[in-house]
Structures are given as C-alpha cells and as structure tokens.
Amino acid sequence: MTTVDSGRQYAEAPPFILCLDGPEYAEEMSRLAVWVGDLLLPVYGREVTSQQPWCPRWWEHPEAVARLHALWLAWQEHTDPAAGASGPAVWHRDHLGAVLSELRSPSGPFAGCKGDSHRPKTPPAVESYEDAVAASRQGPDPDPYETSLW
Hints:
Elements (H helix, E strand, L loop, with lengths): L1 E2 L5 E2 L11 H23 L17 H17 L8 H17 L25 H10 L12
Antiparallel strand pairs: 1-2
C-alpha cells in the first residue's frame, strides 16, 4: 500500500500490460482474456457489422490489447466498493464508450478483420530517429558547383 498526502491509503496500481513481457505478460493476457470473454463481450459486445467491426483474435492487435487492458484496469478500480455507489456509472461514462468506439470504429484496429476472420494491421512506416539525428548533424552534402578549384 502507498500513502497519499491526504492520508488515504491506495493499493499500488498494477503495471500496464505494454510494460510487461515474458511470463508476466502471458499471465496478464490470460486474465484479460477471461474478463473480455466472460464479462465484456457477453454484456457489451454488440453485433459485428462493417461499421462496427470486431476481431475474434483481438489479442493479436496491440492497440486492442492496450485499450482493453486499460478498460479492465478502470473496471477493477471503479467496481471496487471503495469507489462508492457511483463507481460503475463513472466507468460507463468515462471509459467504456470511448474504448469501444475506438476499437470498433470502421478505421480502428479491427478495420481489416471481417466476420470471423483476422487480418493483421500493417502499421505505418517509421524512420529511425537516431539515423535522422545523425544525418542532420553531418549537414548537407557540399554542392560540387560551389567548390572552386582555383
């Protein structure tokens, strides 16, 4: 437990799933998959359409894993009795709709997945930051017409 200046006690927050790897990641993914499969989808999983896609292999989409894990962490916090009677309403208002809208958007992470099929999303290209910085320090190539031989 950690103490906050006001004197209230808060449990230490669990690590975000993208900060985990190896067995810790696998264990957290197993717990997340149970929550998604046993609670989230049976209660909030609306029909799949081209305007509201869902991927049956959601765990293969890193953005979906990140958003669903954040949603699950918020669920745990807001359904805890310490959150008070309005905790679940706050979770619905502040977390559920936003996450599901992003995930199930026609341009979201499941956009290429149709019906019961999964298609990996191709991420945008990225240049190496280090290479770009190194190239900018070298300066431009000299103009051969600017060089005087005399």
